[in-house]
Design a protein that fits this description.
With about 500 residues, the protein is an alpha/beta fold. About 25% of the residues lie in helices and about 25% in strands. A hairpin with a 4-residue loop joins strand 19 and strand 20. It is globular, with a radius of gyration of 23 Å. The structure holds alpha-L-arabinofuranose (AHR). Alpha-L-arabinofuranose (AHR) binds next to loops.
Length: about 500
């Protein structure tokens, strides 16, 4: 008897283009938090450390991910940060109480070291300024220090610190999560909008080539969402280029069907923020369009309880060290699909974060670096998800869960890389019971053959990787076929898939 399965249909055509994908949607984030910087990217005593103290084993893993932009230095950290503490001779840098995460910040790594590190991993800095405890003045000085060529106090100080050439940092965040009561220097939408607009105005006077990100809401559950976004954006609109969105999900009730549907919340979040941006545009009779910077997204919940036990006021405490399961990798895959499907408006996105702190890459002090489960969907999507996002309509069976109705079992995105003559389908089968067979009409891609089908699958939804054992890793899968313009994609139950077609 044939094995029971679900059936779906998809049509893929070159003319259904959503947008060119901005590679910066595969960005990430390093905050001065926990062991992200110290013991993460930077560990001068580590056997693999380079002349600047950066771990080359970690750099290799980061480079594989091809992350084009990395947000820094926070996060909540930035709202209490004095950037001046992190530049100049290391021996003069102060140790500070770091209030966002109640740690000690040694300031051994600061703006210049981080800039150097991003170059080593072939990336760019996305810099955040402190609009919590500070404001216009600190922001303008930092920008002058980083981007002004020479002949002024701050630019010459940078040169004195050994950086003759300006860093030319292009993208700047105007604060972080200023809607959150937990934020140092939390502000109402009006207060934040006013300060951010004035800061933005001054920053663009110094360097009109920069791009600025106005803070939106921290997640869809915030009581002030989406009012905060609308009210603050009304003030910042003329000066900024993007509005930020953040979200983290978790399977707190151990309800996997509901958990895997949470990318629908992300989708709705993006649609609402687009509507907010376009409402403000209409209200202002503006010709300018504001795009979205989804500059914090991931799964974050595993470490919540253990973090309560961590002693305050230590250097590099092991905070937010979520160990990701196989099912987390499925949701991360769907979140990436959601970003691709909205690539006409989402131009920057940052997987939060990159090393040790809710991260795809983990390190042992003095030991190895290793890959979490979520490393893999991010790796494949970043490497192969470049080009044009295509709108590919589907007919998929659906289910209802605790918080969502009409959840398609098939979650997907499609990318056409014209230059490489490649068509890539990323797909998650949300069914925990049955495989999903998808008939894909690819007649528009004549001469293409099936190059590979990579699958992430595991019998145990809670399987994790560790420094010693990699239980969740991609495999080649040979059940899908392509004949006469029809791809029959076989997606195992509870799986993440990448199916790559290439012109021969
Ligand atoms: O990424 C961890 C934290 O999550 C960030 O510091 C903050 O912006 C968000 O709440």
């Amino acid at each position: 008897m044939a094995e029971k399965h679900l059936q779906a249909r998809m049509v893929v055509d070159k003319s259904f283009k959503i947008s060119d994908i901005d590679p910066r949607i595969y960005g990430s984030f390093i905050e001065h938090l926990g062991r992200a910087v110290y013991e993460g990217i930077y560990e001068p005593d580590h056997p693999t450390a380079d002349e600047d103290g950066f771990r080359t084993d970690v750099m290799d893993l980061v480079k594989q991910l091809q992350v084009p932009i990395i947000r820094y230095p926070g996060g909540n950290f930035v709202s209490g940060y004095n950037w001046e503490d992190g530049v100049g001779p290391k021996e003069n840098r102060p140790r500070r109480l770091e209030l966002a995460w109640r740690s000690i910040e040694t300031n051994e790594v600061g703006t210049n070291e981080f800039f150097d590190w991003t170059k080593k991993v072939n990336s760019d800095v996305m810099m955040a300024v402190n609009l919590g405890t500070r404001g216009i003045d600190a922001a303008r000085n930092l920008l002058e220090y980083c981007n002004f060529p020479k002949g002024t106090y701050w630019s010459d100080l940078r040169r004195k610190h050994g950086y003759e050439e300006p860093h030319n940092i292009k993208v700047w965040c105007l604060g972080n999560e200023m809607d959150g009561p937990w934020q140092i220097g939390h502000k109402t939408a009006y207060e934040y909008g006013k300060l951010a607009a004035e800061t933005a105005k001054v920053m663009k006077l110094i360097d009109p080539t920069i791009e600025l990100v106005s803070c939106g809401s921290s997640n869809t559950k915030m009581p002030t969402f989406p009012e905060y976004d609308a009210v603050s954006l009304e003030q910042t609109y003329d000066y900024v280029d993007y509005i930020s969105l953040h979200t983290y999900y978790g399977n707190r009730d151990n309800d996997t069907p509901n958990y895997l549907a949470q990318s629908l919340d992300m989708d709705e979040f993006i649609k609402t923020v687009i509507a907010v941006c376009d409402y403000v545009k209409a209200k202002k009779r503006s010709k300018k369009t504001i795009n979205l910077s989804f500059d914090e997204w991931n799964v974050w919940f595993h470490s919540n309880e253990q973090d309560k036990q961590i002693e305050p006021w230590t250097v590099a405490p092991p905070l937010l060290e979520d160990i990701y399961t196989f099912e987390d990798a499925l949701l991360v895959g769907s979140m990436l699909n959601t970003l691709i499907k909205h690539s006409d408006r989402v131009k920057i996105a940052c997987l939060a974060q990159l090393v040790n702190v809710i991260a795809p890459i983990m390190t042992e002090k003095g030991g190895k670096a290793w890959k979490q489960t979520i490393y893999y969907p991010f790796y494949y999507t970043s490497v192969y998800g470049r080009g044009q996002a295509l709108y590919a309509p589907v007919e998929s069976p659906k289910y209802d869960s605790k918080d969502f109705t009409d959840v398609p079992y098939l979650d997907h995105s499609v990318v056409f890389n014209e230059e490489n003559e490649e068509l890539v389908i990323f797909a998650v089968n949300r069914s925990l019971e049955e495989k999903l067979i998808v008939d894909v009409d690819v007649r528009a891609f004549e001469g293409y053959t099936l190059e590979e089908h990579v699958v992430l699958v595991n019998d145990d939804l809670k399987a994790v990787n560790s420094v010693d054992v990699e239980r969740v890793k991609p495999q080649k899968y040979n059940e899908s076929t392509l004949q006469d313009g029809k791809l029959t994609a076989v997606l195992p139950k509870a799986s993440w898939n990448m199916i790559r077609l290439k012109k021969k």
